[in-house]
Amino acid sequence: MIQKNTKGIVKMPKSKEFDLQTPCYIIYPEILEKNIKTIQYAFTSAWGSNVSIAYSIKTNHLINFLKQSISLGCMPETVSNDEYKLASDLGVDPSRIIYNGPQKDGEIFSYAVMNGSIINIDNFEDIAFLKSHRETLIPNRCKIGIRVNFDLEKICKGETTAGVEGSRFGICVENGDFRKAVEQIHEMGLFVDGLHMHYSTTTRSLSVFDALAKTASSLIKQYNLEHELTFIDMGGGFFGGRKVAGYPSMDEYAKVITEGLSGISRDRVCLIVEPGASILSTAVEYVCRVINTRDIRGKRVITVDGSMMHINPFFSKRQPLIRIESSNDRLLASQLICGNTCMENDRIMNLENHVELSKGDCLWVENAGAYTMSFNNCFINIWYTTNFILDTIDILSNLSIFVFICFCYIKFYDFNPC
């Protein structure tokens, strides 16, 4: 029997069906597929069929997820040469890869441009690179977008991550750089194929996406881009993966973006979204096990074999959603759950009015699929393996899942487009 307290923390009976090697991540391919299809349905219902969902490799670079997302029609969204290599090595057609970020250079940049990848220009060095290769560029093959930097904080006060300092990414509208970028792209005989509107915010509100869409629409009209534009990339930063009261749904995001882009040809212009955490967060759980307990001046301290770095590498102030697998029934008023590192601040959560934890009990942390595995490193616990340990098993609900042992990492091979 599963019991739930007022904090949303679940107690589960100990399962004898399997013995997990902890700490580990539990991978749910079915949930990833459901999340992707939910977003696809929402945006195609609002915009029409000309929609592409981009899979953010930086959010989770697990090969199995990347392959699955590609099979479901997603475009890999890359922000480095290594990520571009990874997508290419998996056999993705270059025209289906998005190349973003502030560090484009060299062979990969040239290959991406020549072979029709979507290139979202982040800075004038990107444009200088294009100029240095202008003799070999084929305008109808190049897909050049501009990442837009405008004062979103002025419109949505207190909502942007960068605040009044402003975002550090993209080409600034207010100082005339956006106009210069458009002119320099045109001078090379190229088109401005798209606008990249991604912004990091703390609220993920509908008002943010309304402002992004309307700004894109305004720039398109102001710079007469209607007849050359082929895509608008709205970026990511959505809520998603689970319905939470008071937060926007994918249908609401799709509706406000579509309305903000009114007047844009939906047949000609592909609407791209990069949902990242919205499709990945709920598709992974993290499991760790109690390794020791102690009492310190009236406080019960629990140490697990996992770490805050595996579920919240930014150490942001948020309470994880957990399930506890224990046979104990005795309640304790307060228990401090801590990680296995030698860092004082490796404190996962305070557990209040819950069953007493003892050695061997398991903690299942929900929503562990975004910006977790991709941050794992060799700090304190050094692991050298490059292999993924993947075993198909059934757990309680009979879902087909995979187990991914922590600290494994992806090896990027030398790029060979041939």
Can you offer a commentary on this structure?
- The chain is an alpha/beta fold and 418 residues long.
- The protein contains 11 helices and 20 strands.
- The protein has helices spanning 29-47, 63-71, 81-89, 106-114, 124-132, 152-155, 177-187, 206-222, 250-260, 277-280, 308-311, and strands at 3-4, 10-12, 24-27, 51-56, 75-78, 98-99, 118-121, 143-149, 171-172, 194-196, 231-233, 270-273, 284-296, 299-304, 322-325, 331-338, 347-355, 362-365, 392-395, 399-405.
- β8, α6 (152-155) and β9 (171-172) form a beta-alpha-beta unit.
- α1 (29-47) runs parallel beside α9 (250-260) and α8 runs parallel beside α9 (250-260).
- The radius of gyration is 23 Å and the shape is elongated.
Which tags fit this structure?
single chain; 418 residues; alpha/beta; eleven-stranded mixed beta sheet; eight-stranded parallel β-barrel; 11 helices; 25% helix; elongated; disordered N terminus; disordered C terminus
Briefly say what this structure is.
The protein has 418 residues and is of the alpha/beta class. The protein has helices at residues 29-47, 63-71, 81-89, 106-114, 124-132, 152-155, 177-187, 206-222, 250-260, 277-280, 308-311; strands at residues 3-4, 10-12, 24-27, 51-56, 75-78, 98-99, 118-121, 143-149, 171-172, 194-196, 231-233, 270-273, 284-296, 299-304, 322-325, 331-338, 347-355, 362-365, 392-395, 399-405. 25% of the residues lie in helices and 24% in strands.
Shape: elongated
Annotation, overall tally of beta strands:
20
Largest sheet geometry: 11 strands, mixed
The number of helical elements comes to 11
Q: What structural class should be given to the helix and strand makeup?
A: alpha/beta
What are the segments in which pLDDT stays under 50 over at least 5 consecutive residues? Answer: 1-8, 384-402, 404-418
